[in-house]
Design goal:
single chain, alpha/beta, Metallo-beta-lactamase, Chain A, Rossmann fold, 3 domains, about 25% strand
Length: about 550
């Protein structure tokens, strides 16, 4: 068993189980970049181990349709062919992604809870759990050594939006038959008690839509189908019409409604352009941007950059989501801008407009008690979540030596009665920037951060290589460092230092231009830091011009 993502982090979940040289994979997700990852669109797990073992990878099983579980699938399928097993909703969400990336010959296979899928030495059985999206499953993977259970993202919701409760009967049967290894969602392992039902949010949304006189804008994760359903239900119950804004939100509404996972009340869905003809108290806008993403619809609306919709006094904005770790600043900025525009903003810190889709401590302990695993591996969480999950496992009686806290790349080897960390496989992150996948690495990101922090200085000088005479320059161009007209003294000092250095190096017999560039770069960097305490990127351009040929 190994992990390519999701360990010690939120997102890019990807685990694999191997027996006798044959592999099944569970989930293949992405995550979103941190705020200082300039230009990066998404982050993928390093899937090279699976690609290299391509013929041994027999199947990919998807627990549910959130991006952190399916987002990297198209990138994997560009490099290898493997059957993908999932629900109608999962396969429906994957379709447009695969089409956009021109992935052909997709072998998508529909499965249902309780169905047994035989793949090589494995028998895989999906079972229903509750989450913030329909068709959320865990998997029981029966191997010749024993049964491995992966919970997927789960919580125990006795009043779910779609009426489909967790399959406790299958869980109980698995526990009675014996579970060798449990891999369990650890996201909310720090939260005591139980996670509230999604229906709590539905009641609050109806209250807001009934009592607020103006327009209502609601934002949530675009893939949170249950939350989207409750927005439409609440709007329909109070006679408001809903316009959908944002590409990903529109795609979710279209696909989920076509597959009958989202049931929109009659005469509720409308176009954004139609809202201007309606009274404010009959308007709801469902939009992307719950994480404050700079190019999302809500962020642009908050900044006044969205042509089709402007915030006005009397509007209410409901942020029905919680910030993903790392996005807190972006969300806070969006909230502040909305208040400045005259809106009232309701968010988790001030109202019950969001509940988690992940189990809290009592549910986690209940899952462990039902399944009674011999070995326990916390998954899907930052390191602190996984540590707390391991503590909960000890609380329910799992022996400390049978609990494994592992990082991405770790491989665990299990027999019927023993387990050990058996080594590492290649893992890490692959950055996606536009159409480039993996071509932006640590060096490029370091340069981007330096450019963003202290700017760049380009210095150019033309030199006769035969004499070392400076024919033109040095010329300095500064961007994002200092304004040249206000820093003439510093610029002139830098030019003089370059001239002196080039002449001195040539006089000393140093004719290696790459070395000269390096010394010029170091000298200017030292000067700029000494004068400004800043460290701009310095790019020397030394042109070799033969003055004799120029004269001819």
């Amino acid at each position: 068993m190994g992990f390519l993502g999701g360990q010690g982090e939120i997102g890019k979940n990807c685990a694999f189980i191997e027996h006798d040289g044959q592999i099944v994979v569970i989930d293949c997700g992405l995550t979103f970049p941190e705020e200082d990852a300039f230009g990066i669109d998404i982050v993928l797990p390093d899937l090279s181990y699976l690609v290299e073992r391509g013929r041994d990878v027999r199947a990919l099983f998807i627990t549910h349709g959130h991006e952190d579980h399916i987002g990297a699938v198209p990138y994997l399928l560009r490099d290898m062919s493997v059957p993908v097993y999932g629900s109608r909703l999962v396969l429906g969400f994957l379709g447009p992604k695969l089409e956009e990336m021109k992935v052909r010959d997709f072998d998508g296979r529909l499965i249902e809870p309780g169905q047994t899928v035989s793949v090589g030495p494995f028998e895989v059985v999906p079972f229903r759990v509750n989450h913030s999206i329909p068709d959320a499953w865990g998997f029981a993977v029966k191997t010749p050594v024993g049964t491995v259970v992966h919970t997927g993202d789960f919580k125990f919701d006795q009043t779910p939006v779609d009426g489909q409760v967790t399959d406790f009967q299958t869980l109980g049967q698995l526990g009675r038959e014996g579970v060798l290894i449990l891999m369990m969602d650890s996201t909310n392992a720090e939260r005591p008690g139980y996670t509230a039902s999604e229906k709590v949010v539905g009641r609050k949304l109806r209250e807001i839509l009934w009592n607020r006189p103006g327009r209502i804008l609601v934002t949530t994760f675009a893939s949170n189908v249950h939350r989207i359903q409750q927005v439409f239900d609440a709007a329909g119950s109070v006679g408001r019409k809903v316009a959908v804004v944002g590409r990903s939100m529109a795609d979710t509404v279209r696909i989920a409604s076509e597959l009958d996972y989202l049931r929109i009340p009659p005469n509720t869905l409308t176009e954004l352009e139609e809202l201007s003809r309606l009274p404010d108290d009959r308007v709801v806008v469902l939009t992307t941007g719950s994480q404050g993403e700079p190019m999302s619809a809500l962020a642009r609306i908050a900044a006044g950059d969205f042509r089709k919709l402007e915030i006005k006094t009397g509007d209410t904005v409901v942020i029905a989501a919680t910030p993903v770790p790392g996005n807190e600043t972006l969300v806070a900025r969006t909230v502040d801008l909305l208040f400045r525009q005259g809106a009232d903003v309701i968010y988790e810190a001030t109202s019950e407009v969001h509940v988690s889709g992940h189990a809290s401590q009592e549910e986690l302990k209940a899952m462990m008690n039902i399944l009674a695993p011999r070995f326990f591996v916390p998954v899907h969480g930052e390191w602190r979540h996984m540590v707390r999950s391991a503590q909960l496992a000890r609380d329910v009686g799992i022996a400390d030596e049978n609990i494994f806290l592992v990082e991405n790349g770790s491989v665990l080897e299990f027999t019927r009665d023993r387990a050990r960390v058996a080594g590492k496989v290649q893992s890490g992150q692959v950055l996606v920037d536009g159409l480039g996948v993996g071509d932006v690495g640590d060096v490029v990101m370091r340069d981007r951060r330096q450019l963003a922090q202290d700017g760049i200085v380009l210095v150019s000088v033309a030199v006769d290589p035969s004499t070392g005479d400076i024919l033109s320059g040095p010329e300095l161009i500064s961007r994002g460092f200092v304004y040249a007209r206000e820093s003439e003294e510093l610029i002139e000092e830098a030019k003089e230092r370059v001239s002196e250095m080039v002449s001195s190096l040539y006089a000393d017999g140093d004719r290696e231009w790459p070395q000269i560039k390096g010394k010029v770069r170091h000298a200017l960097a030292s000067l700029f830091h000494e004068r400004t305490r800043r460290r701009p990127m310095v790019v020397p351009v030394i042109l070799e011009v033969d003055s004799r040929s120029k004269g001819e």
